Every structure is written in C-alpha cells, then in structure tokens.
Amino acid sequence: MALCFEKFLSDKATKRRTRNSISRHNIIIKDIKDEEIICEFNEQSEVIVKVIEKEVQTASCSSCEKFCEHQEITVRFLASHTSLKRKIDDDDNSSDEVDNVKRIKLSENEENSPAVANTVKYPEIKISKKKKKSNLTEKQLEEINKVGDKLRIDNLIKSFGKKGSYNEFYKHCAKIMSENMDLIKLANKLTIEQADTDLWHQLRVGRVTASRLYETTKCTVKNGSLVDKFLGKSSGWSFMMMRGTVLEEYVFKEVQKEYPTLKQCGLIMCHKVHPLFAASPDGLHEDFVLEIKCPGTANTFQQYTNLDKLNKKYFAQIQLQMFVTGKRKALLAVASLDFETTRKITKLWIEYDEEYTTQMITDASEFYEQAVYPALKRKFLH
After folding, report:
1. 55 vs 323, residue with greater confidence
2. Residue 106 and residue 243 in contact, taking contact as beta carbons nearer than 8 Å
C-alpha cells in the first residue's frame, strides 16, 4: 500500500540526522494490519505506526512516553521501504517493451568513511529486484511436486497420521527420506537460489534449520513466535536483511576467486539419524562450508570478526552446517562496512565441535517433541 509520510514527518521534524542513521539500526516489520504497522526496533522496542486512509497519523514506542528517535527513525524507514516497494512494483508492471532493468542504489552506511582512499576502484553495487522464476518448465514443476510430495514435513506428518509417538514419527521420516536420497539431492539442486525459491521455504517448514538451532535449544515457550516460525510464519523485513541479501552474491564471488571450486548450494536435509534437521550454507567446497555475513554496524562487525565475541546463534548455525554436510571446518566470510566500494572481506576459520553439536541437536529435539510436533499435528491433521 502506498502511504503518505510527509505531513507526519514535517509535523514531527527534528534536528537529528535520522535519515542518515536508518542503516545503523535493525528495524523489522513484524505485522501489517488495516490501520497499524507494528515494527521491532533493535530487538528492544516495539514501535506502532497508526495509519488512517493511507496517511500516517501517530507513532508510539514501548520504551518512550513521548515522541522519540525510535519513532522517527522507524517512520523514515517505512517511508524508504514504501518508496522501494513502489519502485519495485513499477518494475513488475512495466511493459515488455522496456528492456532496461531499473535499479535501486543501496544506501551507503554512515560508518563508511568517504575520506578513506581506495587504491582500486570497483563498480558501484546497485540493487535490482530478484524475480522468482515464474516460467518453470513442465519438467521443473514435476520435480518440485515430486520433492514436495515426499519431503515436505506437512506431507510426512499426513502420511504418518494422528496416532503414534514423536519417536515413531521421527523413524517414519528417517525411513521415507532414506528411501528417497535422489529426491534429497534434487531438492538441494532445486533450492540453489534459497530464499528466492518457494520450495526452499516449503521444505524449511517444520524443520530445525541451522539459523534457528540455537533459539530452539533455549526456547521455553511452547506456543510463541518460534513455533510460529516452524509453522511457516515470516520473520519480517529489515534494511540489514536487504543489504545482506544484495551483497551476499558479491562476497561469494570474491571468495570464489581464492577457491575456484567453491559452489553455491541449496537446502541440505539430514536423513536417517536426524531427518528433521537441515541447513543452507552460502557455499560448499570439498574441504569446508561457507557462511557469509554482511554486518551493517561497527558493533556487529566486531562481533563477527572476533571468534571470542561471535554470537552463539551464529556459532550454532555454522556447526549444524558442518554437521549436515559432513565437513570438519567452515569459512566465515564477513563483508566490511564499506564493502560496496572496497570489496574487503575478513575471513575466519571455525573448526567442527562434535560434542557441542551433538548436545545442541539433543536439546533442540527435546523442544521439537514438546512444542513443534504437537503444533504441526494441530495444523496439518484435521
């Protein structure tokens, strides 16, 4: 929906450089209702923007009583996000006669100092909307349906039925997947573009993926947002997520220059022993898995490039990636804050920790049995 932000922002104008500081914050659109847009600000505050007849009226912050920077930055973020979406929609509705692809410039981070001289000039990275494949061949559609029929969790739970314990369901999944190793390999091939393919999202529903492993081991709420994610609910959108998505392919190409046999990969699913676990590394080499991170602030950059400070969530993510691929080490490639112009990458090696990973899988399985499995039955077995 096209919203009007100008009047609200002019009424609430401040001297802060909020327009330039948007990229320094992690803002996620959690929910969009008829007259409300609910956002999460830096994982700390909830900002609710009231909209009447497509015009922004008010904003409130869970952490502040009066109009605050959280509200203004969030509204400006929504303004830029709406502008981006409108431009993308224009691209989708353009006639076939228009041959050139409209591109949207990625906003430069405030931390990227223009005073730093680069000895090498790189072409400017721009954003163009990735379109999901719509003109799939009959063979591709047949392959997608075949994989989905056998390997999607909703179909596995339907073929298992209402009766039977969690352990029996686990064995049922292991049996089906072991009998269809060719489809597991095909699923990896069909989901090579990961989030840009519908099948990738469908196969992740009901599975403990690497990105949510740590959260699964720590969660104690059996009917909260984590279970919603297992059931397929989207986590929202943020500037940081968009930047990472755009830069990822460029980082991959830079790493590939050093390791020419590095390949992209799709969703890799476990079978036999742990059929409900899966991972999607950003790259796969004969000797290691690749995980790419594109931090947007100096603080997160330091966390990624110092293994002692590495977020436990990402350590667990990389460990499960090694587990499902059978690799003993992983390469963490971290894009610099000024990667758009310098192509600088910090590389760190992480060794596989078998004892740690085994315990994480055990803990995640316990939560799955207690919370996720019952929720899946409620949703898919009527």
Report:
1. 323
2. yes
